[in-house]
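Annual report, structural modelling task.

Input specification for the iron/sulfur cluster complex:
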Amino acid sequence: MALSGLQIFKLLAKTNCKDCGFPTCMAFAMQLAAGKAELDKCPHVTDEVKAELGEASAPPVRKVTIGSGDYAVSVGEETVLYRHEKRFENPPGIAVYVGDDTDDSAFEQKLETFKTQEFERVGQVLRAKMFAIESADAGRLADRAKKASDTGAAVVLMSEDAAALKQAAEPIKAKKPLLYAATAENFDQVSAAAKELNVPFAITAPDLDQLAELGQKAIDGDFKEVVLDPMSANLKDALRDQTYIRRAAIKKKFRALGFPTIAFPCKMTDDKNLQVVYAGVFVAKYAGIIVLDTSDPGHLMPLLVLAQNIYTDPQRPMQMDQGVYPLNDPSEDSPVLLTTNFSLTYFTVAGEIEASKVPTWLLVMDTEGQSVLTSWAAGKFVADAIAPFVKKSGIEEKIKHRKIVIPGYVAQISGELEEELSDWEVVVGVREAADVPRYLRQMTSA
Ligand code: SF4
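The model returned the following structure:
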């Protein structure tokens, strides 16, 4: 049963040392009780208290990991309903569906496409990491599961037959496949297979009351890695069910629904473009795993980008390390451009510089991940901060000229910066990254 903030407080060290990031033990206890802090943030909790608080401090949506290695997909562990309240923790796993209506050559094709669909965006590699294999034929299920697993993918095994699930999971159990699914009829068999193989399993029921009953059964059986499928028939029902489940887990601390969910756009429509639209809804609200009948990069990329955006911590912009970035093999005569360490800014500017093929030094200043105009407005990207950064960056040892190009959006600081950097010429560059190649070519051909 969940403990109150006061009950948790009584178990803490009560020193108000602030090591947890909260001003007092009481503040930390209240946040812990609300599911908005993690127990391990307090380094002074004894093992006995950890054991006592274990269940109370578990996140309201439990964490479940499917797969292993680079393609392991961890879902759940969420503590808020809305991203701006704190952040969303684990982006949904995107699974490529393979059913009995997929013939062997189409399956091979999906395996091949799966291996190659990979995108890099703002320094992160994005890809679908899962296959969902369904078959009424136990042999085919096992065979395809093995082939899918051999690509590295995390695998969801789908069958109504608990014995078939076990047979397919056994050879790949080290890679933690998800058994889908336990129903009211076969709960005991599927959960027993999951326990024996030490793998997670999904539960499914035709309404949320019955789903909660199975969720409670899983809790009573001490199963922690469980995924919920509310069997929603269409997008409207699915949105309602996903929202009810999340609200019950977060607001009511209702443990029986405190597990991540799985959603099947592939079962709602045959139109693959529409599946992507549905999946976009599930990325935002609130699926842990989303199963699509496509491995086409054109379908997957927008979803992965959407998930990346939504699951980025809104209080901590993605940022680069401060420093001097050599692009296109620059020399001591190459131009020097200055920008901020907001990742999106860096990768946009760096991408344009690389496309220009002009050897360039890019100076990236730590502005706590803020963009050029935002950091200027916040007083972080201003002359008396930029000048010491340039001096200490080491750029002066790499070049023999003293000319620095600042972003066009902060033209107003050029005079002051020239005063601060008295031996440098400060040049106002372009405003938009898209204009950088033209600007660099003109600059270097002059
Ligand atoms: S780190 Fe622990 S002991 Fe220190 S203030 Fe936070 S809760 Fe209290």
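The pocket of iron/sulfur cluster is lined by residues 12-13, 15-20, 22, 25, 28, 42, 44 (CB under 6 Å).
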